[in-house]
Amino acid sequence: MTTLIKQSFFVYLITSITLVGTARAQAKASPDDKYDKKDVMIPMRDGIHLHTVIYTPKEANEPLPFLMERTPYGAENFPSPEKIPYYKDMAEDGYIFVCQDIRGRYGSEGAYVMQRLPRNKKDPKAIDESTDTYDTFDWLLQHVPGNNGKAGMLGVSYDGWTTEMGAIDPHPCLKAVSEQAAHADMFLGDDFHHNGAFRLSYSFEYAFMEEISKTDSLFPFTLYDTYEWYLQLGPLSNVNKNYFHNKLPSWNNFAQHPNYDSYWKERAVQLQLDSPRVPNLNVAGWWDQEDFYGPVTAYETWEKNDRHHFNHMVIGPWNHGQWAFQKGDKLGNISFDSATGEYFRKNIQAPWFAFYLKGKGDGHFAEAITFQTGSNTWKNYDSWPPRQAIPKNLYFQAGGKLTFDKPAANNDQYDSYVSDPAHPVPYRNRPIEQTYGPDSRWYTWLTEDQRFVHNRADVLSWETDTLQQDITVTGKLIAQLFAATSGSDADWIVKLIDVYPQQYPKEPKMAGYQFMVANDVFRGRFRKSFEKPEPVTPGKIESYAIDLHTLNHVFLKGHKIMVQVQSTWFPIIDRNPQTYVPNIFEAKESDFRAATHKVYRSANAPSHIQLPVME
Ligand code: PG9
Prior knowledge:
GO terms for molecular function: dipeptidyl-peptidase activity. By secondary structure, the protein is α+β, with helices and mostly antiparallel strands. It has helices spanning 3-15, 85-93, 129-143, 158-168, 200-211, 226-233, 237-244, 249-256, 262-267, 269-272, 293-303, 322-325, 340-358, 451-454; strands at 35-43, 49-57, 64-71, 96-101, 147-156, 174-180, 193-194, 197-198, 280-285, 311-316, 330-331, 334-335, 368-372, 377-381, 390-396, 402-403, 414-419, 459-463, 471-485, 491-499, 514-523, 542-555, 560-566, 595-602, 605-606, 608-614.
Protein backbone atom coordinates (compact mmCIF):
# COMPACT_ATOMS: atom_id res chain seq x y z
CA MET A 1 0.00 0.00 0.00
CA THR A 2 1.67 3.17 -1.11
CA THR A 3 1.35 6.46 0.71
CA LEU A 4 -0.10 7.92 -2.46
CA ILE A 5 -3.04 5.56 -2.40
CA LYS A 6 -3.64 6.18 1.28
CA GLN A 7 -3.54 9.90 0.69
CA SER A 8 -6.00 9.72 -2.15
CA PHE A 9 -8.30 7.66 0.01
CA PHE A 10 -8.07 10.24 2.72
CA VAL A 11 -8.90 12.99 0.27
CA TYR A 12 -11.86 10.90 -0.68
CA LEU A 13 -12.98 10.48 2.91
CA ILE A 14 -12.82 14.17 3.48
CA THR A 15 -14.60 15.20 0.31
CA SER A 16 -17.14 12.43 0.03
CA ILE A 17 -20.51 12.90 1.53
CA THR A 18 -21.71 9.44 0.75
CA LEU A 19 -19.32 6.86 2.22
CA VAL A 20 -21.22 5.93 5.29
CA GLY A 21 -19.42 5.96 8.58
CA THR A 22 -16.47 7.89 7.24
CA ALA A 23 -18.24 10.80 5.62
CA ARG A 24 -18.26 12.43 8.99
CA ALA A 25 -14.71 13.40 8.30
CA GLN A 26 -16.03 16.22 6.14
CA ALA A 27 -16.51 18.45 9.18
CA LYS A 28 -13.63 18.53 11.65
CA ALA A 29 -13.96 19.70 15.22
CA SER A 30 -13.22 23.37 15.78
CA PRO A 31 -12.69 25.45 18.97
CA ASP A 32 -16.15 27.07 18.86
CA ASP A 33 -17.79 23.70 19.38
CA LYS A 34 -20.67 23.51 21.78
CA TYR A 35 -19.28 20.25 23.10
CA ASP A 36 -16.59 18.98 25.42
CA LYS A 37 -14.84 16.27 23.44
CA LYS A 38 -13.08 13.40 25.21
CA ASP A 39 -11.08 10.52 23.77
CA VAL A 40 -11.13 7.57 26.16
CA MET A 41 -10.11 3.92 26.19
CA ILE A 42 -12.96 1.93 27.76
CA PRO A 43 -12.09 -1.42 29.37
CA MET A 44 -14.06 -4.49 28.28
CA ARG A 45 -14.66 -7.58 30.46
CA ASP A 46 -11.64 -9.38 28.94
CA GLY A 47 -9.23 -6.48 29.55
CA ILE A 48 -9.26 -5.15 25.98
CA HIS A 49 -9.74 -1.36 25.69
CA LEU A 50 -11.92 0.24 23.02
CA HIS A 51 -11.23 3.72 21.73
CA THR A 52 -14.26 5.91 22.26
CA VAL A 53 -15.01 9.54 21.47
CA ILE A 54 -17.52 11.28 23.72
CA TYR A 55 -19.14 14.65 22.96
CA THR A 56 -20.91 16.18 25.98
CA PRO A 57 -22.81 19.48 25.47
CA LYS A 58 -21.13 22.31 27.39
CA GLU A 59 -24.54 23.61 28.42
CA ALA A 60 -27.52 21.43 29.31
CA ASN A 61 -30.69 22.19 31.28
CA GLU A 62 -31.40 18.58 32.16
CA PRO A 63 -29.62 15.23 32.41
CA LEU A 64 -29.14 13.86 28.88
CA PRO A 65 -29.34 10.44 27.26
CA PHE A 66 -26.49 8.84 25.31
CA LEU A 67 -26.66 8.25 21.57
CA MET A 68 -24.00 5.80 20.48
CA GLU A 69 -22.62 4.58 17.16
CA ARG A 70 -20.07 1.72 16.98
CA THR A 71 -17.99 1.61 13.82
CA PRO A 72 -15.12 -0.07 11.98
CA TYR A 73 -14.51 3.16 10.00
CA GLY A 74 -12.70 5.34 12.53
CA ALA A 75 -14.19 7.15 15.53
CA GLU A 76 -11.36 9.66 15.05
CA ASN A 77 -13.30 10.95 12.04
CA PHE A 78 -16.32 11.78 14.16
CA PRO A 79 -16.79 15.57 14.14
CA SER A 80 -18.82 17.76 16.43
CA PRO A 81 -22.43 16.48 16.21
CA GLU A 82 -24.03 19.82 15.34
CA LYS A 83 -21.83 19.92 12.23
CA ILE A 84 -23.04 16.74 10.56
CA PRO A 85 -26.48 16.47 9.00
CA TYR A 86 -27.02 13.00 10.50
CA TYR A 87 -26.90 14.33 14.05
CA LYS A 88 -27.75 18.01 13.63
CA ASP A 89 -31.46 17.83 14.55
CA MET A 90 -30.73 15.58 17.50
CA ALA A 91 -27.86 17.81 18.58
CA GLU A 92 -30.43 20.61 18.89
CA ASP A 93 -32.57 18.36 21.11
CA GLY A 94 -29.59 17.58 23.40
CA TYR A 95 -27.75 14.25 23.76
CA ILE A 96 -24.36 13.00 24.82
CA PHE A 97 -22.96 11.58 21.57
CA VAL A 98 -20.62 8.62 21.62
CA CYS A 99 -18.68 6.97 18.80
CA GLN A 100 -16.57 3.88 19.37
CA ASP A 101 -14.06 1.94 17.28
CA ILE A 102 -15.02 -1.72 17.35
CA ARG A 103 -12.37 -4.26 18.39
CA GLY A 104 -9.26 -4.28 16.29
CA ARG A 105 -10.14 -1.22 14.20
CA TYR A 106 -8.48 2.20 14.27
CA GLY A 107 -7.73 3.16 17.90
CA SER A 108 -9.19 0.07 19.60
CA GLU A 109 -7.23 -2.86 20.95
CA GLY A 110 -7.97 -6.49 20.20
CA ALA A 111 -8.50 -8.44 17.00
CA TYR A 112 -10.90 -7.40 14.26
CA VAL A 113 -13.26 -10.05 12.95
CA MET A 114 -15.55 -9.05 10.12
CA GLN A 115 -19.15 -9.84 11.17
CA ARG A 116 -18.04 -11.35 14.47
CA LEU A 117 -20.36 -14.24 15.45
CA PRO A 118 -22.50 -14.04 18.59
CA ARG A 119 -20.66 -15.58 21.54
CA ASN A 120 -21.30 -18.94 23.12
CA LYS A 121 -23.42 -17.85 26.09
CA LYS A 122 -22.35 -20.86 28.13
CA ASP A 123 -18.80 -19.50 28.20
CA PRO A 124 -18.73 -16.68 30.82
CA LYS A 125 -15.51 -15.32 29.34
CA ALA A 126 -16.76 -15.11 25.76
CA ILE A 127 -17.13 -11.71 24.12
CA ASP A 128 -18.93 -10.42 21.05
CA GLU A 129 -20.22 -7.07 19.73
CA SER A 130 -23.11 -7.36 22.15
CA THR A 131 -20.90 -7.71 25.26
CA ASP A 132 -18.67 -4.89 24.04
CA THR A 133 -21.76 -2.68 23.74
CA TYR A 134 -22.97 -3.72 27.17
CA ASP A 135 -19.61 -3.07 28.83
CA THR A 136 -19.37 0.31 27.14
CA PHE A 137 -22.78 1.42 28.44
CA ASP A 138 -21.87 0.21 31.94
CA TRP A 139 -18.75 2.36 31.86
CA LEU A 140 -20.46 5.42 30.33
CA LEU A 141 -23.24 5.44 32.94
CA GLN A 142 -20.67 5.48 35.74
CA HIS A 143 -18.05 7.80 34.26
CA VAL A 144 -19.87 10.45 32.24
CA PRO A 145 -21.60 13.03 34.47
CA GLY A 146 -24.92 14.57 33.50
CA ASN A 147 -26.46 11.47 31.91
CA ASN A 148 -30.12 10.55 32.44
CA GLY A 149 -29.50 6.79 32.60
CA LYS A 150 -30.91 6.14 29.12
CA ALA A 151 -29.23 5.36 25.83
CA GLY A 152 -29.97 4.87 22.15
CA MET A 153 -27.96 3.42 19.29
CA LEU A 154 -28.01 4.03 15.58
CA GLY A 155 -25.85 3.69 12.53
CA VAL A 156 -25.80 2.86 8.84
CA SER A 157 -24.59 -0.41 7.36
CA TYR A 158 -21.78 -1.93 9.47
CA ASP A 159 -22.74 0.58 12.18
CA GLY A 160 -26.38 -0.49 11.69
CA TRP A 161 -25.35 -4.08 12.25
CA THR A 162 -23.44 -3.21 15.46
CA THR A 163 -26.66 -1.47 16.52
CA GLU A 164 -28.58 -4.73 15.98
CA MET A 165 -25.96 -6.65 17.93
CA GLY A 166 -26.32 -4.15 20.80
CA ALA A 167 -30.09 -4.62 20.73
CA ILE A 168 -30.32 -8.43 20.73
CA ASP A 169 -29.00 -8.70 24.27
CA PRO A 170 -29.49 -5.14 25.46
CA HIS A 171 -28.06 -3.30 28.42
CA PRO A 172 -31.02 -2.15 30.58
CA CYS A 173 -30.22 1.49 29.73
CA LEU A 174 -30.77 0.88 25.98
CA LYS A 175 -34.25 2.26 25.31
CA ALA A 176 -34.40 2.69 21.51
CA VAL A 177 -32.32 1.90 18.43
CA SER A 178 -32.37 2.54 14.72
CA GLU A 179 -30.73 -0.07 12.54
CA GLN A 180 -30.15 1.49 9.16
CA ALA A 181 -29.12 -0.50 6.06
CA ALA A 182 -27.53 -3.25 8.13
CA HIS A 183 -26.74 -6.38 6.13
CA ALA A 184 -28.88 -9.41 6.99
CA ASP A 185 -27.64 -12.25 4.82
CA MET A 186 -24.39 -12.02 2.90
CA PHE A 187 -25.20 -15.03 0.70
CA LEU A 188 -28.75 -14.24 -0.27
CA GLY A 189 -28.98 -10.50 -0.66
CA ASP A 190 -26.41 -8.10 0.75
CA ASP A 191 -22.84 -6.92 0.11
CA PHE A 192 -21.06 -10.17 -0.78
CA HIS A 193 -23.59 -12.22 -2.79
CA HIS A 194 -27.09 -11.92 -4.22
CA ASN A 195 -28.93 -15.23 -4.63
CA GLY A 196 -25.60 -17.02 -4.53
CA ALA A 197 -24.01 -14.87 -7.27
CA PHE A 198 -20.73 -13.48 -5.95
CA ARG A 199 -20.41 -9.68 -5.80
CA LEU A 200 -16.84 -9.69 -7.03
CA SER A 201 -15.76 -6.06 -7.18
CA TYR A 202 -17.44 -5.11 -3.91
CA SER A 203 -16.21 -8.15 -1.97
CA PHE A 204 -12.66 -7.95 -3.32
CA GLU A 205 -12.30 -4.24 -2.61
CA TYR A 206 -14.06 -4.32 0.76
CA ALA A 207 -12.09 -7.31 2.08
CA PHE A 208 -8.88 -5.48 1.16
CA MET A 209 -10.07 -2.16 2.59
CA GLU A 210 -10.94 -3.65 5.99
CA GLU A 211 -8.46 -6.46 6.45
CA ILE A 212 -5.13 -5.34 5.02
CA SER A 213 -4.60 -2.98 7.99
CA LYS A 214 -6.38 -1.47 11.01
CA THR A 215 -7.50 1.55 9.01
CA ASP A 216 -9.26 1.78 5.64
CA SER A 217 -7.11 1.29 2.55
CA LEU A 218 -7.88 1.36 -1.16
CA PHE A 219 -6.60 -1.48 -3.35
CA PRO A 220 -3.85 -0.11 -5.63
CA PHE A 221 -5.48 -0.85 -8.98
CA THR A 222 -3.16 -0.46 -11.95
CA LEU A 223 -6.05 0.48 -14.27
CA TYR A 224 -8.61 3.24 -13.74
CA ASP A 225 -11.33 1.27 -15.49
CA THR A 226 -11.68 -1.69 -13.15
CA TYR A 227 -13.90 -3.48 -15.71
CA GLU A 228 -10.72 -4.03 -17.68
CA TRP A 229 -8.69 -4.91 -14.58
CA TYR A 230 -11.13 -7.59 -13.38
CA LEU A 231 -11.34 -9.02 -16.91
CA GLN A 232 -7.55 -9.29 -17.04
CA LEU A 233 -7.59 -10.89 -13.58
CA GLY A 234 -9.04 -14.03 -15.16
CA PRO A 235 -10.30 -16.86 -12.92
CA LEU A 236 -10.90 -16.03 -9.25
CA SER A 237 -8.08 -18.36 -8.15
CA ASN A 238 -5.71 -15.62 -9.39
CA VAL A 239 -6.77 -13.37 -6.51
CA ASN A 240 -4.86 -15.32 -3.86
CA LYS A 241 -2.18 -16.43 -6.28
CA ASN A 242 -1.30 -12.91 -7.44
CA TYR A 243 -2.59 -10.44 -4.84
CA PHE A 244 -3.92 -11.56 -1.47
CA HIS A 245 -1.63 -14.59 -0.87
CA ASN A 246 -4.21 -16.15 1.51
CA LYS A 247 -3.74 -13.29 4.00
CA LEU A 248 -7.27 -11.87 4.01
CA PRO A 249 -9.63 -14.00 6.12
CA SER A 250 -12.79 -12.76 4.39
CA TRP A 251 -11.53 -13.54 0.90
CA ASN A 252 -10.43 -17.03 2.05
CA ASN A 253 -13.90 -17.60 3.45
CA PHE A 254 -15.56 -16.48 0.20
CA ALA A 255 -13.42 -19.02 -1.67
CA GLN A 256 -13.98 -21.85 0.81
CA HIS A 257 -17.74 -21.37 1.18
CA PRO A 258 -19.21 -21.11 -2.34
CA ASN A 259 -22.59 -22.47 -1.20
CA TYR A 260 -25.11 -21.49 1.49
CA ASP A 261 -23.48 -23.50 4.25
CA SER A 262 -23.27 -23.02 8.02
CA TYR A 263 -20.59 -20.33 7.58
CA TRP A 264 -23.16 -18.03 5.94
CA LYS A 265 -26.19 -19.18 7.92
CA GLU A 266 -24.56 -18.56 11.30
CA ARG A 267 -23.89 -14.99 10.24
CA ALA A 268 -27.38 -14.33 8.88
CA VAL A 269 -29.45 -12.16 11.17
CA GLN A 270 -32.56 -14.24 10.46
CA LEU A 271 -31.09 -16.66 13.01
CA GLN A 272 -29.98 -14.00 15.46
CA LEU A 273 -32.95 -11.65 15.77
CA ASP A 274 -35.84 -13.06 17.76
CA SER A 275 -38.34 -10.96 19.64
CA PRO A 276 -37.38 -7.26 19.54
CA ARG A 277 -36.37 -6.23 23.05
CA VAL A 278 -36.10 -2.49 22.41
CA PRO A 279 -38.02 -0.24 19.99
CA ASN A 280 -36.28 -0.36 16.62
CA LEU A 281 -36.65 1.80 13.54
CA ASN A 282 -35.38 -0.12 10.49
CA VAL A 283 -34.33 2.18 7.66
CA ALA A 284 -33.68 1.32 4.01
CA GLY A 285 -33.14 3.09 0.67
CA TRP A 286 -34.84 1.93 -2.54
CA TRP A 287 -31.61 2.33 -4.52
CA ASP A 288 -29.19 1.12 -1.87
CA GLN A 289 -26.22 -0.24 -3.83
CA GLU A 290 -25.05 -2.30 -0.82
CA ASP A 291 -27.68 -3.42 1.65
CA PHE A 292 -31.33 -3.12 0.71
CA TYR A 293 -32.15 -6.74 1.45
CA GLY A 294 -30.74 -6.35 4.99
CA PRO A 295 -33.05 -3.84 6.69
CA VAL A 296 -36.17 -5.18 4.97
CA THR A 297 -35.24 -8.70 6.11
CA ALA A 298 -34.46 -7.48 9.65
CA TYR A 299 -37.89 -5.83 9.77
CA GLU A 300 -39.62 -9.00 8.49
CA THR A 301 -37.72 -11.21 10.92
CA TRP A 302 -38.41 -9.07 13.98
CA GLU A 303 -42.00 -8.54 12.90
CA LYS A 304 -42.77 -12.25 13.38
CA ASN A 305 -42.38 -11.83 17.16
CA ASP A 306 -43.11 -8.15 17.68
CA ARG A 307 -45.27 -8.57 20.79
CA HIS A 308 -44.72 -5.02 22.05
CA HIS A 309 -45.08 -3.24 18.71
CA PHE A 310 -41.42 -2.20 18.84
CA ASN A 311 -40.56 -2.83 15.19
CA HIS A 312 -41.02 -0.17 12.47
CA MET A 313 -39.91 0.31 8.86
CA VAL A 314 -38.91 3.41 6.89
CA ILE A 315 -37.92 3.22 3.20
CA GLY A 316 -36.97 6.30 1.20
CA PRO A 317 -35.64 7.08 -2.29
CA TRP A 318 -32.02 6.81 -1.26
CA ASN A 319 -28.74 5.12 -1.92
CA HIS A 320 -26.71 3.50 0.87
CA GLY A 321 -26.98 5.87 3.83
CA GLN A 322 -28.04 8.90 1.81
CA TRP A 323 -30.69 9.74 4.41
CA ALA A 324 -27.91 10.35 6.90
CA PHE A 325 -25.93 12.97 5.04
CA GLN A 326 -27.78 14.47 2.08
CA LYS A 327 -30.75 16.59 1.26
CA GLY A 328 -32.29 13.69 -0.63
CA ASP A 329 -34.15 15.66 -3.29
CA LYS A 330 -32.26 13.79 -6.02
CA LEU A 331 -30.38 10.58 -6.64
CA GLY A 332 -28.22 10.56 -9.76
CA ASN A 333 -30.51 11.91 -12.48
CA ILE A 334 -33.76 11.18 -10.68
CA SER A 335 -35.59 13.97 -8.83
CA PHE A 336 -37.95 13.41 -5.92
CA ASP A 337 -39.44 16.95 -5.65
CA SER A 338 -38.61 17.42 -1.95
CA ALA A 339 -35.74 17.09 0.53
CA THR A 340 -36.48 13.51 1.62
CA GLY A 341 -33.27 13.08 3.64
CA GLU A 342 -33.89 16.23 5.64
CA TYR A 343 -37.51 15.15 6.14
CA PHE A 344 -36.39 11.80 7.55
CA ARG A 345 -33.87 13.31 9.94
CA LYS A 346 -36.19 16.01 11.26
CA ASN A 347 -39.60 14.35 11.21
CA ILE A 348 -38.85 10.67 11.76
CA GLN A 349 -35.41 10.00 13.28
CA ALA A 350 -35.21 12.91 15.76
CA PRO A 351 -38.78 12.39 17.15
CA TRP A 352 -38.08 8.65 17.45
CA PHE A 353 -35.17 9.13 19.84
CA ALA A 354 -36.71 12.17 21.56
CA PHE A 355 -39.74 10.10 22.55
CA TYR A 356 -37.94 7.03 23.86
CA LEU A 357 -34.93 8.72 25.42
CA LYS A 358 -36.31 12.08 26.53
CA GLY A 359 -40.06 11.42 26.87
CA LYS A 360 -40.91 14.13 24.32
CA GLY A 361 -43.65 13.86 21.68
CA ASP A 362 -46.71 11.64 21.38
CA GLY A 363 -44.96 8.39 20.45
CA HIS A 364 -47.27 7.76 17.51
CA PHE A 365 -45.05 6.17 14.86
CA ALA A 366 -46.62 4.55 11.82
CA GLU A 367 -45.82 0.87 11.38
CA ALA A 368 -44.26 1.59 7.99
CA ILE A 369 -43.45 4.87 6.29
CA THR A 370 -42.29 4.54 2.71
CA PHE A 371 -41.64 7.11 0.04
CA GLN A 372 -43.62 6.35 -3.11
CA THR A 373 -41.56 7.26 -6.16
CA GLY A 374 -43.30 8.40 -9.35
CA SER A 375 -45.94 10.20 -7.28
CA ASN A 376 -43.07 11.40 -5.05
CA THR A 377 -45.04 11.33 -1.81
CA TRP A 378 -44.53 9.85 1.66
CA LYS A 379 -47.10 7.15 2.56
CA ASN A 380 -47.92 5.51 5.89
CA TYR A 381 -49.00 1.85 6.07
CA ASP A 382 -50.18 -0.37 8.90
CA SER A 383 -48.14 -3.29 7.55
CA TRP A 384 -45.23 -3.65 5.17
CA PRO A 385 -45.81 -4.67 2.49
CA PRO A 386 -49.43 -3.45 2.62
CA ARG A 387 -52.04 -6.16 2.22
CA GLN A 388 -54.25 -4.31 -0.28
CA ALA A 389 -52.07 -4.92 -3.36
CA ILE A 390 -53.31 -7.47 -5.92
CA PRO A 391 -50.66 -9.60 -7.67
CA LYS A 392 -50.79 -9.19 -11.44
CA ASN A 393 -48.53 -10.90 -13.95
CA LEU A 394 -46.84 -8.94 -16.69
CA TYR A 395 -45.91 -11.46 -19.42
CA PHE A 396 -43.09 -11.43 -21.96
CA GLN A 397 -44.52 -11.63 -25.51
CA ALA A 398 -43.35 -11.92 -29.11
CA GLY A 399 -41.99 -8.76 -30.74
CA GLY A 400 -40.51 -7.42 -27.49
CA LYS A 401 -43.98 -6.74 -26.00
CA LEU A 402 -44.98 -6.92 -22.36
CA THR A 403 -48.69 -7.38 -21.53
CA PHE A 404 -50.97 -8.49 -18.70
CA ASP A 405 -52.35 -11.31 -20.94
CA LYS A 406 -50.95 -14.79 -20.58
CA PRO A 407 -49.38 -15.99 -23.84
CA ALA A 408 -51.94 -18.19 -25.61
CA ALA A 409 -51.45 -21.28 -27.78
CA ASN A 410 -47.97 -21.71 -29.26
CA ASN A 411 -45.56 -23.64 -27.10
CA ASP A 412 -41.79 -23.28 -26.91
CA GLN A 413 -41.58 -19.70 -28.15
CA TYR A 414 -38.50 -17.87 -26.94
CA ASP A 415 -36.05 -15.01 -27.42
CA SER A 416 -32.38 -15.84 -27.22
CA TYR A 417 -28.87 -14.41 -26.96
CA VAL A 418 -25.30 -15.56 -26.71
CA SER A 419 -23.72 -14.75 -23.37
CA ASP A 420 -19.95 -14.70 -23.53
CA PRO A 421 -17.92 -14.49 -20.29
CA ALA A 422 -15.09 -12.98 -22.35
CA HIS A 423 -17.33 -9.98 -23.19
CA PRO A 424 -19.49 -9.41 -20.12
CA VAL A 425 -22.12 -6.66 -19.94
CA PRO A 426 -20.83 -3.84 -17.68
CA TYR A 427 -23.07 -3.25 -14.70
CA ARG A 428 -22.63 0.52 -15.03
CA ASN A 429 -21.31 2.88 -17.65
CA ARG A 430 -17.56 2.55 -18.14
CA PRO A 431 -15.08 3.57 -16.91
CA ILE A 432 -15.92 1.69 -13.76
CA GLU A 433 -13.89 3.59 -11.16
CA GLN A 434 -12.95 1.57 -8.12
CA THR A 435 -15.86 1.31 -5.71
CA TYR A 436 -14.76 3.78 -3.05
CA GLY A 437 -12.24 5.58 -5.24
CA PRO A 438 -12.16 9.32 -5.90
CA ASP A 439 -15.02 10.42 -8.21
CA SER A 440 -16.58 6.96 -8.04
CA ARG A 441 -20.07 6.74 -9.51
CA TRP A 442 -20.75 3.63 -7.45
CA TYR A 443 -23.28 5.51 -5.30
CA THR A 444 -25.75 6.19 -8.10
CA TRP A 445 -25.29 3.26 -10.47
CA LEU A 446 -28.68 1.75 -9.70
CA THR A 447 -30.36 4.86 -11.09
CA GLU A 448 -28.29 5.00 -14.30
CA ASP A 449 -30.06 5.19 -17.66
CA GLN A 450 -30.25 1.59 -18.86
CA ARG A 451 -30.09 2.70 -22.50
CA PHE A 452 -26.33 2.21 -22.20
CA VAL A 453 -26.92 -1.55 -22.67
CA HIS A 454 -30.37 -1.57 -24.24
CA ASN A 455 -29.26 -2.44 -27.75
CA ARG A 456 -26.58 -4.97 -26.89
CA ALA A 457 -27.12 -8.35 -28.55
CA ASP A 458 -26.76 -10.05 -25.15
CA VAL A 459 -29.48 -7.99 -23.41
CA LEU A 460 -33.14 -8.81 -24.14
CA SER A 461 -35.95 -6.35 -23.56
CA TRP A 462 -39.72 -6.36 -23.59
CA GLU A 463 -41.92 -3.31 -23.03
CA THR A 464 -45.57 -2.35 -22.64
CA ASP A 465 -47.42 0.07 -24.86
CA THR A 466 -47.58 3.61 -23.53
CA LEU A 467 -49.55 3.48 -20.28
CA GLN A 468 -53.03 5.02 -20.52
CA GLN A 469 -53.29 5.31 -16.75
CA ASP A 470 -51.00 5.24 -13.73
CA ILE A 471 -50.00 1.81 -12.42
CA THR A 472 -49.08 1.80 -8.73
CA VAL A 473 -46.85 -1.06 -7.64
CA THR A 474 -46.54 -1.41 -3.86
CA GLY A 475 -45.09 -4.49 -2.24
CA LYS A 476 -43.19 -7.64 -3.19
CA LEU A 477 -42.14 -8.37 -6.78
CA ILE A 478 -41.11 -11.70 -8.22
CA ALA A 479 -39.69 -12.45 -11.66
CA GLN A 480 -40.64 -15.88 -12.93
CA LEU A 481 -38.30 -16.88 -15.73
CA PHE A 482 -38.58 -20.00 -17.85
CA ALA A 483 -35.20 -20.32 -19.46
CA ALA A 484 -32.69 -22.72 -20.97
CA THR A 485 -28.97 -22.62 -21.73
CA SER A 486 -26.66 -24.58 -23.99
CA GLY A 487 -24.19 -24.58 -21.08
CA SER A 488 -24.53 -26.27 -17.69
CA ASP A 489 -24.89 -23.14 -15.52
CA ALA A 490 -25.96 -19.53 -16.12
CA ASP A 491 -26.76 -16.30 -14.30
CA TRP A 492 -30.08 -14.56 -14.89
CA ILE A 493 -30.34 -10.84 -14.27
CA VAL A 494 -33.78 -9.26 -14.39
CA LYS A 495 -34.32 -5.48 -14.41
CA LEU A 496 -37.70 -3.76 -14.10
CA ILE A 497 -37.54 -0.37 -15.78
CA ASP A 498 -39.70 2.76 -15.91
CA VAL A 499 -39.32 4.20 -19.43
CA TYR A 500 -39.93 7.95 -19.52
CA PRO A 501 -41.91 9.42 -22.46
CA GLN A 502 -39.88 10.29 -25.57
CA GLN A 503 -41.05 13.92 -25.19
CA TYR A 504 -40.65 15.08 -21.60
CA PRO A 505 -41.07 18.86 -21.30
CA LYS A 506 -40.89 18.72 -17.47
CA GLU A 507 -37.20 17.73 -17.77
CA PRO A 508 -36.24 17.42 -21.46
CA LYS A 509 -32.96 15.59 -20.83
CA MET A 510 -34.90 12.77 -19.16
CA ALA A 511 -36.88 11.99 -22.34
CA GLY A 512 -36.76 8.24 -23.04
CA TYR A 513 -34.77 7.60 -19.81
CA GLN A 514 -34.73 3.96 -18.74
CA PHE A 515 -34.92 4.13 -14.95
CA MET A 516 -34.37 0.79 -13.21
CA VAL A 517 -36.79 0.52 -10.29
CA ALA A 518 -36.08 -3.09 -9.27
CA ASN A 519 -33.52 -5.72 -10.18
CA ASP A 520 -31.57 -8.75 -9.10
CA VAL A 521 -29.36 -11.58 -10.23
CA PHE A 522 -29.87 -15.31 -9.73
CA ARG A 523 -27.14 -17.96 -10.14
CA GLY A 524 -28.78 -20.85 -12.00
CA ARG A 525 -27.02 -23.67 -10.10
CA PHE A 526 -28.99 -22.65 -6.98
CA ARG A 527 -32.46 -22.92 -8.56
CA LYS A 528 -33.43 -25.91 -6.39
CA SER A 529 -31.35 -25.22 -3.31
CA PHE A 530 -28.83 -22.64 -2.14
CA GLU A 531 -27.17 -25.36 -0.03
CA LYS A 532 -26.77 -27.98 -2.75
CA PRO A 533 -26.16 -26.49 -6.20
CA GLU A 534 -26.84 -28.62 -9.26
CA PRO A 535 -25.73 -28.33 -12.86
CA VAL A 536 -28.35 -27.28 -15.38
CA THR A 537 -29.16 -29.81 -18.10
CA PRO A 538 -28.18 -28.18 -21.39
CA GLY A 539 -31.25 -27.28 -23.45
CA LYS A 540 -33.77 -28.07 -20.69
CA ILE A 541 -36.35 -25.41 -19.81
CA GLU A 542 -35.95 -24.58 -16.13
CA SER A 543 -38.03 -22.33 -13.91
CA TYR A 544 -36.31 -19.55 -11.96
CA ALA A 545 -38.20 -17.54 -9.32
CA ILE A 546 -36.17 -14.39 -8.73
CA ASP A 547 -36.96 -12.18 -5.76
CA LEU A 548 -36.99 -8.55 -6.92
CA HIS A 549 -37.68 -7.38 -3.37
CA THR A 550 -40.18 -4.66 -2.54
CA LEU A 551 -41.08 -1.46 -4.30
CA ASN A 552 -43.41 1.50 -3.96
CA HIS A 553 -43.52 3.15 -7.37
CA VAL A 554 -46.09 4.69 -9.68
CA PHE A 555 -45.50 4.04 -13.38
CA LEU A 556 -47.13 7.22 -14.61
CA LYS A 557 -49.55 7.58 -17.49
CA GLY A 558 -47.52 8.24 -20.64
CA HIS A 559 -44.57 6.08 -19.44
CA LYS A 560 -43.90 2.46 -20.42
CA ILE A 561 -42.84 -0.52 -18.31
CA MET A 562 -39.82 -2.44 -19.57
CA VAL A 563 -38.10 -5.64 -18.49
CA GLN A 564 -34.53 -6.43 -19.47
CA VAL A 565 -32.85 -9.82 -19.05
CA GLN A 566 -29.11 -10.44 -19.36
CA SER A 567 -26.60 -12.92 -17.96
CA THR A 568 -23.57 -10.85 -17.02
CA TRP A 569 -23.25 -7.77 -14.81
CA PHE A 570 -19.54 -7.23 -14.58
CA PRO A 571 -17.56 -6.78 -12.41
CA ILE A 572 -20.09 -6.35 -9.61
CA ILE A 573 -21.01 -9.99 -10.28
CA ASP A 574 -18.21 -12.43 -11.10
CA ARG A 575 -18.43 -14.24 -14.42
CA ASN A 576 -20.29 -17.52 -14.34
CA PRO A 577 -18.13 -19.97 -16.35
CA GLN A 578 -21.38 -21.38 -17.81
CA THR A 579 -19.73 -24.78 -17.50
CA TYR A 580 -20.67 -26.25 -14.15
CA VAL A 581 -17.76 -26.64 -11.76
CA PRO A 582 -18.37 -27.40 -8.07
CA ASN A 583 -16.58 -24.23 -6.87
CA ILE A 584 -16.32 -21.22 -9.20
CA PHE A 585 -13.39 -19.92 -7.09
CA GLU A 586 -11.47 -22.91 -8.48
CA ALA A 587 -12.66 -22.66 -12.09
CA LYS A 588 -9.97 -22.77 -14.78
CA GLU A 589 -9.70 -20.35 -17.67
CA SER A 590 -10.87 -23.11 -20.04
CA ASP A 591 -14.13 -23.56 -18.04
CA PHE A 592 -15.37 -20.11 -19.12
CA ARG A 593 -17.39 -20.61 -22.33
CA ALA A 594 -19.93 -18.69 -24.35
CA ALA A 595 -23.43 -20.22 -24.26
CA THR A 596 -26.75 -19.60 -25.96
CA HIS A 597 -29.51 -18.69 -23.54
CA LYS A 598 -33.23 -18.85 -24.34
CA VAL A 599 -35.93 -17.01 -22.41
CA TYR A 600 -39.33 -18.59 -23.05
CA ARG A 601 -42.55 -16.64 -23.56
CA SER A 602 -45.18 -19.20 -24.48
CA ALA A 603 -48.19 -20.97 -23.04
CA ASN A 604 -46.11 -23.79 -21.54
CA ALA A 605 -43.36 -21.49 -20.27
CA PRO A 606 -44.81 -18.03 -19.67
CA SER A 607 -41.97 -15.89 -18.30
CA HIS A 608 -43.37 -12.94 -16.39
CA ILE A 609 -42.98 -10.49 -13.55
CA GLN A 610 -45.50 -10.60 -10.76
CA LEU A 611 -46.37 -7.04 -9.74
CA PRO A 612 -48.29 -6.07 -6.58
CA VAL A 613 -50.74 -3.60 -8.11
CA MET A 614 -52.75 -1.18 -5.96
CA GLU A 615 -56.20 -0.47 -7.33
N1 PG9 B 1 -21.86 -2.09 3.12
C1 PG9 B 1 -20.76 -2.02 4.05
C2 PG9 B 1 -20.57 -3.35 4.74
C3 PG9 B 1 -19.72 -4.26 4.10
C4 PG9 B 1 -19.50 -5.48 4.69
C5 PG9 B 1 -20.07 -5.83 5.90
C6 PG9 B 1 -20.93 -4.93 6.47
C7 PG9 B 1 -21.19 -3.69 5.90
C8 PG9 B 1 -20.85 -0.77 4.88
O1 PG9 B 1 -21.22 0.26 4.30
O2 PG9 B 1 -20.51 -0.72 6.05
